[in-house]
Amino acid sequence: MTDQQRLEPALIKAGIVVVLGTIMSILDSTIVAVALRTLSGDFHVNVSTIQWVTTGYLLSLAVVIPVSGWAIHRIGAKPVYMASLAMFILGSILCGLAWSATSLIVFRVIQGLGGGMIMPVGQSIMARAAGPHRMGRVMGIIGVPQLLGPILGPVLGGFIVSNTSWRWIFFVNVPIGIITLWLSRSFLPKSTRDNQHRFDLLGFALLSPGLALIVYGLSEVGTQGGFRGASVWDSLIAGVILVTLFVLRSIKAPEPLIDMRLFRDRTFSVASIGIFLTGATLYGTMFLLPLYYQIDRGDAAWKAGLMMAPQGIGAALVMRFAGSLSDRHGPRYVATFGMAVLALGTFFYTGVSATSSYLVLGVALFVRGIGLGFGMMPVFAASYRNLTHQNVPKATSATNIIRQIGGSLGVAIFAVVLQTQITERLPRDGARLQAGLIKPTVSDLARMADAFAHSFWWSFGTCVIAIVPALFLPRIGIAQHQTDRVQAVVD
Q: What's the pLDDT score for residue 352?
């Protein structure tokens, strides 16, 4: 390892702070997944309504992320990171004190407004400190929460729900957040400010409600039982129009929330497609799995959460190796292999039944984790490959928006598919079975399993599609890439 590739102590300390903050934010993306049935019963609402506790959080992450690029320039990365941590801690306290489903959803949005800037600002801090020659190794470290968070979330949430009150799902963030906030003062490098940048208020006014309306419209498909309701089409059409206007305006705007000029770079565009699809299958599948174990298999929350662990183990085993491999040999082959393995692991779930072997399902999820480890980190690292130092904050904001939008749409779409399939197969008792109000028969469990199996086909299809952009990523390592760029300048 050369001196340039080594990670000095200051960079490692900053990485610790970023990892702690990021893992809190991502844990809360999925930690409530195993508590949805409990929350539904406590607040006397159906699962379709309570799923907004997850979707609302993911959506608020996507909405606030565009602000991070401007805030880094205007206020400085370190102050913004610390302010985001403080808001996340406040949101966590409020969620733990929620008295109704509506209040919990509102407080989750507040929590997401803080958590949404933790990830992109933290990544920007690390990207600037590490430089492009160490990006693969750094992403392998700070990428740990991005893969382990969605897995550890259900595990931790399951044990909390089974042994204490669901409120501790949120209160557990408070001591970790306070420690991270204290460490940030000493461990994060000082940041510069640039008062020349302006906030794109009009772009924010177009993008934020546009995304919210699209996700809301998709969720209403499940509530209305299809695309028949006026609220579905009104929301979807309005959302698409607003997002389209945002894109058209951003092309010519001097300082847009998402710099569309980044997409002129082929590698960034291809990597962004891969990030979107990976986010969809990651969060969407993590929404389906706990519900399958709890509703169809009748498992307790702790067991459903524990069954998520194999994916985290598989990802942890290969993630850093995948980052180094991508740096040396290029992201194309590493990411393509990862996406193919991800699809293979997901394929086993397309045939789930009410009696599927836990061992087979666990091994399949372990394989899926290996695929995520090899597929996700090289794609993220590749998005920074051709960028200048000044474009790193813009790219960090853009890629995180894309991932959260992918996750939000993945959860919304997979939830709609699942609800539609349950309604078709169990038109009379589907809702009561989801809420655990009646004891299911063997026939009921078989039909419920078929509904989940059909839903997993959507996740499998997303993984297969994600192989395509991976095939168009660069095929050479970062060292050779930099040599070629220098030679091109000389020539």
A: 92
